[in-house]
Design goal:
With 199 residues, the chain is of the alpha/beta class. Helices cover 28% and strands 26% of the residues. Strands 1, 2, 3, 4, 5, 6, 7, 8 and 9 form a 9-stranded mixed sheet that branches. α1 (13-25) links the parallel β1 and β2. It is globular and about 40 Å long. The protein starts with a strand and ends with a strand.
Length: 199
């Protein structure tokens, strides 16, 4: 199954090129396409990515990335995705080489599951995240591989439209999937490295 990988970015060129893109290139699972979406026009990044094996897209207008947490860019990426499965990797995080192979295999073995996720470790604090069942603050964007059909259940919400106190788009979209009856499969293995600012 082909995996479309969507990476939203905004003016973090060194992290995107030094961390996120190389970790995609190191994946043992290779039936992929990598879609990098700039949250607004960025001629510098356009030039830097000219030789990279990615599809580069620019949102026509900048929607403050700090305020939307990449939701706008992810939704643009979904419009270009051609894979059977969709994965997300933020520009400042990285995947371990078996991330996609483990989660794709889990979905192949469990055809009733609509999305899969594993464990993530934070840096520099070395805290492992990944609750089963999924819950608020226990699942992160970069941990998820979803089936394409979930695009019809929910797109990435802008934080300004999320109701209640939990304004994280990654939890809001998972909550929408679960409310729609989506089943999941959890892989209890660390496959994502999450870096706090400054790391």
């Amino acid at each position: 199954m082909k995996v479309s990988i969507i990476t939203p970015t905004w003016q973090r060129h060194h992290l995107l090129l030094g961390r996120a893109i190389p970790s995609v290139q190191r994946q043992s699972y290779t039936d992929t396409e990598h879609i990098v979406v700039s949250d607004g026009p960025d001629p510098t990044l356009r030039g830097l990515l000219a030789e990279e094996p990615v599809t580069y897209i620019e949102c026509p207008e900048h929607d403050d990335h700090r305020m939307n947490f990449g939701s706008t860019a992810r939704n643009w990426g979904l419009d270009y995705a051609t894979g059977d499965l969709i994965a997300y990797l933020d520009d400042d995080n990285s995947w371990r080489p078996d991330h996609l192979s483990l989660l794709v295999k889990a979905l192949e073995i469990n055809p009733e599951a609509s999305f899969a996720y594993g464990l993530m470790i934070t840096h520099p604090h070395e805290v492992v995240i990944g609750t089963n069942p999924p819950q608020y603050a226990g699942i992160d964007t970069s941990m998820i591989v979803q089936r394409r059909q979930l695009m019809d259940v929910s797109r990435w919400p802008h934080p300004s439209v999320i109701q209640g106190d939990q304004h994280a788009p990654d939890w809001a979209i998972v909550e929408a999937w679960l409310s729609g009856g989506a089943q999941w499969i959890h892989v209890p293995q660390v496959t994502v490295d999450y870096y706090f600012p400054g790391c």
